Amino acid sequence: MGLSAGISPGPLLALVIAASLRSGLKGGLLVALAPLITDVPIVALSVLLANYLPPEALRWVGTVGGLVVIWMGVETLRSGRRAVLPGGADVRAEPRRELGRGVVVNALNPHPYLFWATVGGPALVSGWRISPWHALAFLVPFYALLVGSKMTLAWVVSRGAGGLSQTWYRRLLVGCSLLLLGMGGLLIWQAWSGGLNAG
Fold first, then answer.
1. Whole-prediction pTM value?
2. CA Rg, the chain, in Å?
3. What's the rounded Cα separation, in Å, for the pair 167 and 88?
4. Positive/negative CA dihedral, 121, 67, 38, 19
Protein backbone atom coordinates (compact mmCIF):
# COMPACT_ATOMS: atom_id res chain seq x y z
CA MET A 1 0.00 0.00 0.00
CA GLY A 2 2.88 2.36 0.73
CA LEU A 3 4.44 1.71 -2.67
CA SER A 4 1.09 2.15 -4.41
CA ALA A 5 0.43 5.42 -2.57
CA GLY A 6 3.95 6.56 -3.35
CA ILE A 7 3.78 6.23 -7.13
CA SER A 8 0.05 6.63 -7.83
CA PRO A 9 -0.95 9.85 -9.62
CA GLY A 10 -1.93 12.57 -7.18
CA PRO A 11 -1.12 16.11 -6.16
CA LEU A 12 1.94 15.23 -4.07
CA LEU A 13 3.44 13.02 -6.78
CA ALA A 14 2.95 15.81 -9.30
CA LEU A 15 4.64 18.22 -6.89
CA VAL A 16 7.58 15.83 -6.36
CA ILE A 17 8.11 15.73 -10.13
CA ALA A 18 7.67 19.48 -10.53
CA ALA A 19 10.02 20.23 -7.62
CA SER A 20 12.64 17.82 -8.98
CA LEU A 21 12.54 19.60 -12.32
CA ARG A 22 12.36 23.05 -10.76
CA SER A 23 14.81 22.71 -7.84
CA GLY A 24 16.79 19.57 -8.58
CA LEU A 25 17.14 16.48 -6.42
CA LYS A 26 17.12 18.37 -3.10
CA GLY A 27 13.78 20.03 -3.89
CA GLY A 28 12.18 16.73 -4.89
CA LEU A 29 13.47 14.98 -1.77
CA LEU A 30 12.09 17.72 0.49
CA VAL A 31 8.62 17.40 -1.05
CA ALA A 32 8.78 13.60 -0.67
CA LEU A 33 9.28 14.09 3.09
CA ALA A 34 6.00 16.03 3.48
CA PRO A 35 3.90 13.00 4.60
CA LEU A 36 6.21 12.51 7.60
CA ILE A 37 5.12 15.96 8.80
CA THR A 38 1.48 16.20 7.76
CA ASP A 39 0.41 12.64 8.60
CA VAL A 40 1.33 12.73 12.32
CA PRO A 41 -1.91 14.46 13.45
CA ILE A 42 -3.96 12.50 10.90
CA VAL A 43 -2.64 9.15 12.17
CA ALA A 44 -3.04 10.18 15.84
CA LEU A 45 -6.67 11.22 15.36
CA SER A 46 -7.49 8.08 13.40
CA VAL A 47 -5.93 5.83 16.03
CA LEU A 48 -7.78 7.61 18.86
CA LEU A 49 -11.10 7.21 17.09
CA ALA A 50 -10.46 3.61 16.05
CA ASN A 51 -9.42 2.65 19.59
CA TYR A 52 -12.90 3.49 20.94
CA LEU A 53 -14.78 1.52 18.31
CA PRO A 54 -16.30 -1.81 19.40
CA PRO A 55 -15.22 -4.91 17.44
CA GLU A 56 -18.45 -4.89 15.39
CA ALA A 57 -17.85 -1.30 14.28
CA LEU A 58 -14.22 -2.12 13.49
CA ARG A 59 -15.43 -4.93 11.24
CA TRP A 60 -17.57 -2.50 9.23
CA VAL A 61 -14.82 0.12 9.16
CA GLY A 62 -12.45 -2.59 7.84
CA THR A 63 -14.99 -3.46 5.16
CA VAL A 64 -15.34 0.17 4.14
CA GLY A 65 -11.55 0.45 4.16
CA GLY A 66 -11.25 -2.58 1.88
CA LEU A 67 -13.80 -1.08 -0.50
CA VAL A 68 -11.88 2.23 -0.46
CA VAL A 69 -8.64 0.41 -1.34
CA ILE A 70 -10.43 -1.47 -4.14
CA TRP A 71 -11.82 1.86 -5.40
CA MET A 72 -8.30 3.36 -5.33
CA GLY A 73 -7.07 0.30 -7.26
CA VAL A 74 -9.73 0.76 -9.94
CA GLU A 75 -9.00 4.50 -10.08
CA THR A 76 -5.26 3.83 -10.40
CA LEU A 77 -5.86 1.20 -13.09
CA ARG A 78 -8.00 3.59 -15.13
CA SER A 79 -5.58 6.51 -14.81
CA GLY A 80 -2.46 4.33 -15.13
CA ARG A 81 -3.30 3.19 -18.66
CA ARG A 82 -3.10 6.76 -19.94
CA ALA A 83 -0.85 8.38 -17.32
CA VAL A 84 1.80 10.73 -18.63
CA LEU A 85 5.14 11.12 -16.91
CA PRO A 86 5.43 14.90 -16.81
CA GLY A 87 8.39 16.77 -18.12
CA GLY A 88 9.31 20.39 -18.00
CA ALA A 89 11.90 23.07 -18.36
CA ASP A 90 15.01 22.79 -16.26
CA VAL A 91 14.47 25.90 -14.16
CA ARG A 92 16.30 25.87 -10.83
CA ALA A 93 14.33 27.36 -7.94
CA GLU A 94 15.12 27.57 -4.24
CA PRO A 95 14.90 23.98 -2.84
CA ARG A 96 14.04 25.11 0.72
CA ARG A 97 10.66 26.44 -0.41
CA GLU A 98 9.65 23.06 -1.81
CA LEU A 99 9.11 21.45 1.63
CA GLY A 100 6.53 24.12 2.52
CA ARG A 101 4.75 23.52 -0.76
CA GLY A 102 4.72 19.79 -0.14
CA VAL A 103 3.31 20.18 3.38
CA VAL A 104 0.51 22.46 2.16
CA VAL A 105 -0.40 20.18 -0.76
CA ASN A 106 -0.42 17.02 1.36
CA ALA A 107 -2.34 18.66 4.24
CA LEU A 108 -5.08 19.68 1.79
CA ASN A 109 -5.13 16.30 0.01
CA PRO A 110 -8.15 14.20 1.09
CA HIS A 111 -6.45 10.85 0.37
CA PRO A 112 -4.41 10.63 3.63
CA TYR A 113 -7.51 11.44 5.70
CA LEU A 114 -9.57 8.85 3.87
CA PHE A 115 -6.86 6.19 4.09
CA TRP A 116 -6.10 6.61 7.80
CA ALA A 117 -9.75 6.92 8.81
CA THR A 118 -10.85 3.78 6.99
CA VAL A 119 -7.78 1.54 6.47
CA GLY A 120 -4.63 2.68 8.26
CA GLY A 121 -6.15 3.60 11.65
CA PRO A 122 -7.99 0.31 12.20
CA ALA A 123 -4.97 -1.69 10.94
CA LEU A 124 -2.68 0.18 13.33
CA VAL A 125 -5.01 -0.35 16.30
CA SER A 126 -5.42 -4.02 15.38
CA GLY A 127 -1.64 -4.45 15.36
CA TRP A 128 -1.24 -2.52 18.61
CA ARG A 129 -3.73 -4.85 20.35
CA ILE A 130 -1.33 -7.70 19.57
CA SER A 131 1.80 -5.73 20.47
CA PRO A 132 3.44 -2.36 19.72
CA TRP A 133 5.88 -4.23 17.47
CA HIS A 134 3.03 -5.36 15.22
CA ALA A 135 1.86 -1.74 14.87
CA LEU A 136 5.41 -0.63 14.02
CA ALA A 137 5.70 -3.50 11.54
CA PHE A 138 2.82 -1.89 9.65
CA LEU A 139 3.74 1.77 10.11
CA VAL A 140 7.48 1.74 9.39
CA PRO A 141 7.42 -0.21 6.08
CA PHE A 142 4.38 1.79 4.94
CA TYR A 143 6.17 5.12 5.30
CA ALA A 144 9.50 3.71 4.11
CA LEU A 145 7.83 2.69 0.83
CA LEU A 146 5.63 5.80 0.58
CA VAL A 147 8.46 8.28 1.09
CA GLY A 148 11.15 6.08 -0.46
CA SER A 149 9.27 5.62 -3.74
CA LYS A 150 8.73 9.38 -4.02
CA MET A 151 12.41 9.98 -3.27
CA THR A 152 13.37 7.46 -5.94
CA LEU A 153 11.12 9.19 -8.45
CA ALA A 154 12.64 12.55 -7.47
CA TRP A 155 16.10 11.13 -8.17
CA VAL A 156 15.01 9.71 -11.55
CA VAL A 157 13.31 12.93 -12.63
CA SER A 158 16.20 15.10 -11.44
CA ARG A 159 18.52 12.99 -13.61
CA GLY A 160 16.39 13.68 -16.69
CA ALA A 161 13.97 10.76 -16.24
CA GLY A 162 16.45 8.60 -18.11
CA GLY A 163 15.81 5.56 -15.94
CA LEU A 164 12.01 5.51 -16.25
CA SER A 165 10.25 5.40 -19.60
CA GLN A 166 6.63 6.28 -20.24
CA THR A 167 5.83 2.60 -20.84
CA TRP A 168 7.41 1.45 -17.57
CA TYR A 169 5.74 4.24 -15.62
CA ARG A 170 2.36 3.02 -16.87
CA ARG A 171 3.29 -0.59 -16.15
CA LEU A 172 4.23 0.32 -12.58
CA LEU A 173 0.89 2.06 -12.09
CA VAL A 174 -1.08 -0.89 -13.48
CA GLY A 175 0.92 -3.27 -11.29
CA CYS A 176 0.21 -1.13 -8.23
CA SER A 177 -3.48 -1.03 -9.09
CA LEU A 178 -3.56 -4.84 -9.12
CA LEU A 179 -1.82 -4.85 -5.73
CA LEU A 180 -4.42 -2.42 -4.39
CA LEU A 181 -7.28 -4.60 -5.65
CA GLY A 182 -5.75 -7.63 -3.93
CA MET A 183 -5.08 -5.70 -0.71
CA GLY A 184 -8.66 -4.41 -0.67
CA GLY A 185 -10.03 -7.92 -1.01
CA LEU A 186 -7.66 -9.10 1.75
CA LEU A 187 -8.82 -6.31 4.09
CA ILE A 188 -12.47 -7.27 3.60
CA TRP A 189 -11.66 -10.94 4.20
CA GLN A 190 -9.71 -10.06 7.38
CA ALA A 191 -12.57 -7.86 8.64
CA TRP A 192 -15.06 -10.73 8.41
CA SER A 193 -12.70 -13.53 9.44
CA GLY A 194 -11.66 -11.70 12.61
CA GLY A 195 -8.24 -10.60 11.34
CA LEU A 196 -8.91 -6.94 12.15
CA ASN A 197 -10.23 -7.70 15.62
CA ALA A 198 -7.21 -9.39 17.15
CA GLY A 199 -6.51 -8.74 20.81
1. 0.67
2. 17
3. 18
4. positive
The domain tally of the chain equals 1
Write out the residue range of the structural domain in which residue 159 sits.
2-193
What CA–CA distance (Å, rounded) separates 139 from 63?
20
Give the angle subtended at the CA of 187 by the CAs of 183 and 193, to the nearest 5°. 140
CA distances from 144 to 137, 140, 160, 164 (A): 11, 6, 24, 21
CA atoms of 186 and 167, how far apart (whole Å): 29
Tell me how long the chain is. 199
pLDDT at 129: 86
Residues 69-80, mean pLDDT to the nearest whole number:
78
Identify the residue with better confidence: 91 or 62: 62
Contact 198, 138 (CB under 8 A): no
Q: Is residue 198 part of a domain?
A: no
Contacts of 120 (CB under 8 A, 6+ apart): 43, 46, 142
Residue 187 and residue 82: Cα distance in Å, rounded?
28
Q: How far is CA 75 from the centre of its chain?
A: 14
**pLDDT above 50: residue 91:** no
CB 187 within 8 A of CB 65: yes
pLDDT score, position 140:
92
Residue 84 lies in a domain: yes
Instruction: For residue 199, tell me if it sits in a domain.
Output: no
Distances (CA, A) of 119 to 21, 154, 172: 33, 27, 23
